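>> Question from a student workshop board

For tomorrow's exercise we were told to take the sequence and the ligand below, predict the bound structure, and bring the output to class. My setup keeps failing. Could a helper post the expected result so I can at least see what it should look like? The ligand is tryptophan.
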Amino acid sequence: MTPTAPSSTRPARVYSGIQPTAVMTIGNYFGAVKNWARLQDERECVYCVVDLHALIGSGDPAGLRRASREMFVSLLAAGIDPDRTTVYIQSTVPEQTELCWLLATLTSLGDLGRMTQFKEKSALLPGGAAESATDEGSFVSAGLLFYPVLQAADILAYRAGCVPVGQDQSQHLELSRGLARRFNGRFGFLFPEPETLLARIPKVMSTADPTRKMSKSLGPRHYIGLFEDEDSVRRKIRSAVTDSGVMPSGRTSPGIANLLTLLGACGHEDEAAAMRDDYLAGTLRYVDLKGRTADALVALTSEMRDRRADVLRRETDLDARIMEMAERARSMAGETLERARDLMGVYPPGRGRPVALSGGSDG
Ligand code: TRP
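>> Workshop helper replied:
Here is what the output should look like for this input. Compare the format with yours to find the bug.
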């Protein structure tokens, strides 16, 4: 049987996921979510808060649930529109987790072991990837190995064709494509091969250490929250690292480059370009760059705080909204799962209550 992709004129569905954290940073916003919001104008979009991925190494049930909810609110505040877009929390859609098992049976263990993220994260732990240590300190969760299978299930459950992610996810996307291809080849066409949508997005670094990507995990000095208050934003920009030794001529130092990136990302590209020229000409006053960048970020974060307050005012029953989104997502993922089960030759799910057999005594 040769699986063929149905010729479709409908533009491919967009899918992406974000880790739940209690704070959405401007790095998350400029690096991903702003682009997600823009894509809503062009395509049907599905966005997910990946709490099941975050479960790996979490150990804080209340914190995880709070973070998932907070990320959901942050996404709405940042412009993801639940009337046009399905935005949901991963654990509300068990169909996806089940698809993860079906796909796991088609996944090569060797491929998973070769994933850079797995190798890096498991090597960070004292025991290393090879150990099957039982003590907490060197425990390497199998979830870390399985991470990309669940990610593939996320994407494929929605038969998404386009996945906007950073370069660091391209290996995971390659695995997703391989799984789609293998499934289609063995069982018949079901999954479009998801393309990585590499947008021109700015890479935002930590202002305290501009050689490292802005991340919550580095500590509060290293990130700026999308809803952060003015004083705190100004303080972080004022103390931003600018020079790190002598730069070859014609190159900006990482700290200056990062501030220029931030200024440009806030919609002041021309000003950022002019300041870059001044820097290269040796006439830029760092206080001016910092002042303008701080102003631009303060304007952004205060607008975002207002929008967040609007969301909380508008969404009077957040849990109901989360469940409404879950239903929409489940119906999409459920349709795919039903076909996957059927094509693979397993039974449909039981109903969770006794099934009336034909010839039974009652109705
Ligand atoms: N692994 C992604 C990250 O760390 C998050 C993610 C989970 C994701 N599932 C996804 C991204 C599906 C795109 C599609 O950023």
